[in-house]
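#onboarding

Welcome to the new folks! Below is a worked example of what a typical request in this channel looks like: someone posts a single protein sequence, and someone else replies with the predicted structure as tokens. Don't worry about understanding the tokens yet, we'll cover that in week two.

Example request:
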Amino acid sequence: MSSARGRDTVGSVKLPALLHSVSYAGFWGQARLSLEDFVDKAADLGYGGVMLTAKRPHLSILDFDAAARARLRAHLERRKLHHVVIAGYNNLTADLEHADIPHREIQVHYIGELARLARDLGASIVRIFTGYENPASTYTAQWNLIVSALQECSRRAAEFDVIIGVQNHHDFACGFESHFDLIGAVGEPNCRALFDAWSPALHGADLDAAARLMGPVTAHTTVACYDKRPRYSYDAQVINYTPQSPYVQAVPAGEGFIDNAAFLASLCANGFTGSVGYEMCSPLLDRSGKGAGSIENLDLYARRFLEYFGSLP
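Example response:
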């Protein structure tokens, strides 16, 4: 395993390591850094690139005009963060209850503007989601809506030489077989998967089978490490407990129930040559002694990932 800055080898494949700015955006009561300070943090920790959260308090298209984009790009280049992914936030099936509101047009425009932003920052990928299943329409109608929207997004992004990366986190196409089907249905060369182990692991799917299928169509994968904490509801009538869905607790890299090492190895063995991100996108356990949401704890987790990534065979 190479220990070069932000680059590691899984098998014979060199992969850049990216840190997701959502980790330092303060959304879960954790310490928050400005976007500029986050860039410095990622560089100082030793990452080779960043995924930038494309909403406030970080990289909102409302706040970054041409001059601000130029300054940010210069900052990224100065800190030698050569691999950049833009993390969009969309839901293509939102508010189907009100067909008179052109939500799909609004979201396609937003994603197109993220592609322009990516071009301006020297980024190669815009991460997007599909949609949450909406009871106001049928499954098939929503699937077709998502496919057509992704086709238009991809064509618009192609003007900027940017990949649209579909992440498996929303309801539609979160199963790996459906994710593969979706990329094929869109049929655009710059529409790729951003396929993570987190979803199929929670589904109880075969991670090796998932990686074998998705490796050739995946442009980036994000690692987040979790363990399951059992939950129960007390039933006084029987003086006993009823099991509930477990709470999924974020833990440091190398811990938890997801075999990220085997997943990455299989992904690479089956054609993956993209980048690997790390994110802290939920409450953490305190391993620093300074508080779960402290900057010291965030830094400990971020360093631990680089150590873990650097130890992979």
